[in-house]
Write a structure and sequence with these properties.
The protein has 16 helices and 15 strands. With about 425 residues, it is of the alpha/beta class. Strands 1-12-11-10-13-14 form a 6-stranded parallel beta sheet, with helices on both faces. A 6-stranded mixed beta sheet has the order 2-7-6-5-8-9, sandwiched between helices. A 3-stranded antiparallel beta sheet has the order 3-4-15, with no helix packed on it.
Length: about 425
């Protein structure tokens, strides 16, 4: 079912590159549609949001009050969940919160300053964003876990207000999404989606306040809208189809590896699952596990399409070569399923999240391990990081120059400013020099 490659093949690099490529949808059509929607929302606000929500989500709301979820509705959704689901949501939220609180301390998301000998003080002031918009998908599937992963780090960072938008086609609410919003501390929520929701968050309407940054995944129209409003607001990233890459030494149960490959393939037909292994017999065993387990999967048609069109099994020379290939792919999720996974960790440079050891399934990271599951896709892990508290704060430089420091720094600045031909810059420094 999955494509089989070997690094011994003369054209391996070309084959791999071809299989990693994603044929984009008709981007010109999407661009034009999104441009029109954003313009309409910017010009007519609430009126446009109501009309477009009726058109695309078949939700006939007479006023904006009909599409805003109240805190009571979110709390009630949580209270009415079965106890097992309530406990799972709370446990996952607690772990995500603990991880991001530690991240807040360890990743430099705090203010600091130091004083030089002449009394000049330099430093950094870190402040949270005022308001953030959270987009939660609501089409093919609903993702309460995404609510936790996006809202909790924002709250840990100190964001004052989190606004959630979630499409509810035909007016059907997902109780788990509403309950997750309650647990995560979402402040306001609106049942709108698509490019119109992104436009409302970016530009603001009478009812929906404009935000400073928009986070959360969506379809091609949402991604296009986020790209277009960037600059008016910040965005987290442009997310592509989900990915998993498993590096295995051949010692893990092949059924486990097959199911890990399924775990991303079941997201959608464009998701990509890749296995790198130096053991040809183990690759064959995983293939047999796929054939055995696939008929039991409720989303088997989606999995089958994903694996047959984008799935790859690669026979590599050794685990070190597997690490190098993984670095080229820079996957969203990367498992090192080996007896001693940390032996290979120093060789991994590019990955959104790294899962170490055969007991660490990617799904644990998706839901409850603690680290964020909003990760860079489409090889952007080469230069991007998982969503974190650092995405919800900004840094301001602090400069307080003493009289003595102005005399020293002023001479340097004067020389450099004159060299650039900027007389006012030079004079501003000169005026503060000791006479």
């Amino acid at each position: 079912m999955m494509q089989r490659l070997s690094t011994k093949s003369a054209d391996f690099d070309a084959q791999l590159k071809n299989l990693l490529h994603i044929s984009e949808e008709d981007s010109s059509s999407i661009e034009q549609t999104v441009t029109n929607i954003l313009r309409e929302v910017q010009n007519t606000g609430d009126e446009a949001v109501l009309r477009l929500t009726k058109e695309f989500d078949r939700l006939n709301a007479s006023s904006m009050a009909d599409i805003e979820l109240t805190p009571t509705q979110m709390r009630t959704a949580f209270e009415q969940l079965p106890q097992e689901q309530k406990s799972a949501l709370e446990a996952a939220a607690h772990r995500v919160k603990m991880y991001h609180e530690r991240q807040m301390i360890e990743s430099g998301c705090h203010s600091w300053e130091y004083t030089e000998e002449d009394g000049t003080k330099l430093g950094q002031q870190v402040t949270p964003l005022d308001r953030v918009g959270l987009y939660v998908p609501g089409g093919k599937a609903a993702y309460p876990s995404s609510v936790l992963m996006n809202a909790i780090p924002a709250k840990v960072a100190g964001v004052k207000e989190v606004i959630m938008v979630v499409p509810t086609p035909d007016g059907l609410h997902n109780p788990l999404v509403l309950a997750a919003a309650y647990v995560a501390g979402v402040d306001r929520a609106f049942t709108i989606g698509g490019a119109q929701a992104i436009g409302a968050l970016a530009y603001g309407t009478v009812t929906i306040p404009a935000v400073d940054k928009i986070v959360g995944p969506g379809n091609a129209y949402v991604a296009c809208a986020k790209r277009r409003v960037f600059g008016t607001v910040g965005i987290d990233m442009i997310a592509g189809p989900s990915e998993i890459l498993v590096i295995c030494d051949g010692t893990t149960d092949p059924d486990w590896v097959a199911m890990d490959l399924f775990s991303q393939a079941e997201h959608d037909e464009l998701a990509q699952s890749i296995l790198l292994c130096p053991d040809a017999d183990f690759i064959e065993a995983v293939a047999k596990s796929i054939d055995k387990l696939l008929p039991r999967m409720p989303r088997r048609e989606v999995i089958q399409t994903s694996l047959s069109t984008r799935g790859i099994m690669v026979l590599v020379k050794d685990m070190r070569e597997a690490c190098e290939i993984s670095n080229y792919i820079a996957p969203e999720h990367m498992e090192i399923s080996a007896i001693n996974p940390r032996e290979f960790l120093p060789f991994i440079r590019h990955a959104g999240a790294i899962f170490l050891g055969k007991f660490t399934s990617e799904s644990l990271g998706d839901y409850c391990a603690g680290p964020n599951h909003v990760l860079p896709t489409s090889r952007t892990a080469r230069f991007s990081s998982p969503l974190g508290v650092y995405d919800f704060v900004k840094r301001s430089s602090l400069i307080e120059v003493s009289e003595e420091g102005a005399n020293t720094l002023g001479k340097i600045a004067n020389t450099l400013a004159l060299g650039e031909g900027l007389q006012a810059h030079a004079m501003a420094a000169q005026m503060r020099l000791k006479k």
